[in-house]
Write a structure and sequence with these properties.
By secondary structure, the protein is mainly alpha-helical. The protein is built from 16 helices and 7 strands. The strands form 2 sheets. The protein has a 4-stranded antiparallel β-sheet. Strands 2-1-3 form a 3-stranded antiparallel β-sheet, covered by helices on one side. A hairpin with a 2-residue loop joins strand 4 and strand 5. Helix 2 (31-63) packs across helix 10. Residues 4-9, 16-26, 422-428 and 468-497 have low confidence and may be disordered.
Length: 497
């Protein structure tokens, strides 16, 4: 028996090919390794972004004509440049510089997002709680680095507010880190579980609508720049050094120009100093000689309102995205409202970042009317988007005219049944009375029939009655006589006495 059990349980696989369980526990990350990874996450985006800014400034300074290149000067100038890449307002000899390029901001934010995602994967983070230390370390490192640069630049012509240098880089870096770790740590799933599904669909459609609005602005800017290419070419000087610096400056401000074109396409427009460009208004003014602004028209055109079709199409796209989320049209309209609110908020953020102070000269300030732009962007999403979402989505079949609903029919039936019950009781009472009356009538009819029969029989009936009556009377007389005789017998002895 033991031998048989050994044969049945013997493993026939050769050594080295034993089965491996699928439930292999993940190796735990040690505390020391976690600290090293977090420090790397804090320092690596700082070093990369600072080095990139210093390299660009060094290239511009090296290519510029009649300038002496200094590596030390490039490294020192990279500090304020790094703050400018994080949208920290600078003070250049008493003149504020708040119109800062958005392209470097997008680049450094992308670096932070990649670093945060890589660190979360290395420490094995899978939940939103695992992302908290990564985001905190990255945001704190950028905030402290911004304060350090602001303090070191205190004696130079470029001054920075230390509080602004602490808050703005820390906030933007924290948001970029959250965007980087969102997918790895399951933040979208957590948001879907905690928020209303209709609101989640509205946020997705709003992100699509904001991207469509930005695409409309980019298209208008590209076409306007292409039509003004001769002006763009004239703004570049023959020398390579100056042209290279102008090219780098124009590329860095490309996102700012797209946001201004977005505001113009939506309707409110933008302003550069005394120049105001709007869909329904134009005020002339001077323009800085920068190639990125060469596409700004020199006068108003009557065909500009035709461009309003672009934001209307963006709103219709949002409605088309929402049309299938639910069969209830009112829920779809609520999702459209959420999408419009997100687009309006995005326009406020983009308009705030794209504009600002530009010294104290004739081109100050550069601004986008964010309040008006946000309201109009909301309307461009809600009105055409709501129309498409309402009529392009599913609807319940309409009721035929004059036909009540099922609930109304059920209520009417219940009321009729309640009303019929007393009528049945009331109808039962007359039925009983009719039966009693009919019985009395039958009895009277029988009596009358008997009386008529008696009249027809006449004397025969009287004789019969007479014969029957004497038969009963002797019995009564006998009974009386017997009782009398008995009583007389009992009293006779007393009488004799």
């Amino acid at each position: 028996m033991v031998r048989i059990m050994k044969m049945l349980t013997r493993d026939e696989r050769p050594p080295g090919e034993e089965p491996v369980s699928d439930l292999v526990p993940e190796p735990e990350v040690s505390r020391a390794k976690r600290v090293r990874v977090l420090l790397a996450a804090a320092c690596s985006p700082l070093l990369f972004s600072y080095t990139a800014v210093a390299l660009v400034l060094a290239m511009v300074a090296f290519a510029a004509d009649r300038s002496r290149f200094s590596a030390t000067g490039a490294l020192l100038a990279a500090g304020p440049g790094w703050l400018a890449s994080w949208q920290v307002e600078l003070d250049l000899g008493g003149h504020p510089l708040g119109v800062l390029p958005l392209l470097p901001t997008l680049v450094v934010a992308w670096l932070v997002a990649r670093a945060a995602a890589r660190v979360v994967r290395r420490i094995g983070g899978r939940t939103p709680a695992d992302a908290v230390p990564v985001v905190t370390v990255i945001a704190g490192a950028h905030a402290l680095f911004g304060v350090l640069i602001a303090l070191l630049a205190g004696g130079s012509p470029i001054r920075v507010n230390p509080l602004t240098a602490f808050c703005v880089p820390g906030l933007l870096a924290g948001l970029a880190a959250v965007a980087g770790v969102a997918k790895v740590c399951g933040l979208p799933t957590a948001v879907r579980d905690r928020f209303d599904p209709v609101a989640v669909h509205g946020l997705r459609a709003g992100a699509l609508g904001l991207a469509a609005m930005i695409a409309c602005g980019a298209a208008v800017f590209t076409v306007a720049t292409a039509l003004s290419w001769s002006t763009v070419d004239s703004l570049f000087e023959p020398g390579f050094g100056t042209s290279f610096g102008m090219f780098v400056l124009s590329v860095a401000y490309l996102p700012n120009a797209v946001v201004a074109a977005l505001s113009f396409t939506a309707g409110p427009g933008f302003s550069v100093g005394s120049l105001t460009v709007g869909m329904f208004g134009y005020q002339e003014g001077r323009l800085p000689g920068v190639p990125v602004l060469a596409g700004i028209p020199s006068h108003h055109a009557v065909w500009w309102p035709a461009l309003l079709l672009l934001p209307a199409l963006a709103g219709a796209l949002v409605g088309w995205k929402i049309r299938t989320i639910d069969e209830d049209p009112m829920l779809r309209m609520r999702a459209v409202a959420v999408a419009g609110a997100l687009v309006a908020f995005g326009c406020v953020v983009l308009g705030t970042l794209a504009g600002g102070r530009l010294g104290d000269g004739p081109f100050d300030p550069v601004s986008v009317p964010v309040g008006v732009a946000s309201v109009i962007a909301f309307c461009w999403i809600v009105i055409p988007g709501g129309f498409v979402a309402f009529f392009a989505g599913a609807h319940e079949p309409p009721e035929p005219p004059g036909a009540p609903d099922d609930e109304v029919i059920a209520e009417d039936i219940a009321v009729e049944e309640e009303a019929d019950e007393p009528e049945e009781d009331e109808a039962a009472e007359p039925a009983e009375e009719a039966e009693e009356t009919e019985a009395e009538f039958d009895a009277e009819f029988d009596d009358e029939a008997e009386a008529e029969l008696a009249r027809e029989l006449g004397e025969d009936l009287d004789e019969t009655l007479a014969e029957t009556e004497p038969e009963t009377e002797p019995e009564q007389d006998v009974a009386v006589t017997e009782s009398t005789e008995g009583s007389g017998d009992e009293s006779a002895p007393g009488g004799d006495r």
